[in-house]
Amino acid sequence: MKPKTRLLTLLLLLTTSISSFAQDNLSPKYDERVELLSVVFRLAQSPEYINNAVKLHADAADEYFNKYSNHEVVKLAQKLKKKRGVGYDAVMSMAIQLEIKNNSVYFNPQLNKDGLDDRWGNYADEFVLALRNFYQESKFNTFFKANQKMYDLACERFQIVSNEIKIEWFEKFFGYKPKGKYHIVVGLLHRGNYGPKYVTNSGEENIYSILSAYKVDSTGYPVFKKHQKSTLVHEFCHSFCNPLGEKYYSDMESKATDLFASVSTLMKRQAYGSAKTMIYEILVRASTIRYFEDNGASKNAVEKLLNAEKAKGFLWIDELYKALERYSSNRSKYPTLNDFMPEIVKVQNNLIADDLLSEFRSNCPKIIRTSLKQGTNNVSTSLKEIIVEYDKPMASYGISDKGKQPKMDLEWQNKERTILCIHVELEPNTKYLLDFRSVFNEDKQGFPLQENFELDFTTGE
């Protein structure tokens, strides 16, 4: 073989090897640890771990495991949920800390548990012991092997999403390359998506994006769409952003607490129960939008993404995003996002919460007219329609179950979706309440109703 030919062959082999490694690194997997924890918290009736979208699999899990609903690990999970709020990402932070081998479950000896969520407190070892007993007594691996076809197909179909991800962006944007691997895990029993990570005792960093399934095809098997890459990017960003939020939170806490108080209802609706969690999320969301702009998203698309996040209560995402633009333009001065974080702290701490809230409220829709006035008495039972008018085109409407409601049917009266017609059947001598909750009534930009609106009335004889 000629030297040039040998060199070309070597380069081709090297390129193929590198490409294969990168592809393997981003190939979706189904993780027995994630499935195990999802089953336990499903049995414990944690809503975020009750996903019935893939009904074939949910039914199979229930049929196999329901007889273990009073197991010690299930009772402990219920106790930890109630007492310490163990749920959501705390559960997945536990899953990736574990090792399953030789029909046993234990903490990975290569880890120091630093990545374990604080909500576990001193209960972690007790929980893992009970989990080991559950794994063995239920013959969990038998169930796991029996459902391999479902797992394999889910991972194969998720490849359409993972193929879209430019993993090199994370290292370029955040300014460092993790000493480890990226892991994509598909789950079928949990709701929501999670981005935990762990660092081994030797310093190897493993970054996870744990995604759930929400849609199935005509045969009942899960399907995924390319647009779900935004969720994948979001979850990977958590492993980079959360440590920064943690590191600088003491400098941000006072102002962050004020900002959180302004939008606590919206935050808690999204399962973000603290100012610190809100800081993690806004860093992640701004970084995720930056990913899309750096990979070809138009200015108009970026503006829509920013507006969508403001509608969810992330009031200063515009200011944060402008700061990230400054960071991206000055990388010689700020090689890493960690180097730039003091500037982000300044941006947040100079905000005026009341001004941001006023701007937010000005974007929110309002109910401007109802055909029946609030507090009306002696309403005739012959009334068949109540009209409610919003000042902006709406994406959704919603009435809570507070108070007594009439039998009713709701429909939009115009294509702009600003006039809602409520067809009613009224009973005599009855006090009714139509409670329009802000979070159930969103306009087409995603902004919630400016404030709750209660339409109360009483019928006559």
Automatic annotation (TrEMBL):
<dbReference type="Pfam" id="PF16286">
    <property type="entry name" value="DUF4932"/>
</dbReference>
<keyword id="KW-0732">Signal</keyword>
<dbReference type="InterPro" id="IPR032560">
    <property type="entry name" value="DUF4932"/>
</dbReference>
<feature type="signal peptide">
    <location>
        <begin position="1"/>
        <end position="22"/>
    </location>
</feature>
<protein>
    <submittedName>
        <fullName>Uncharacterized protein DUF4932</fullName>
    </submittedName>
</protein>
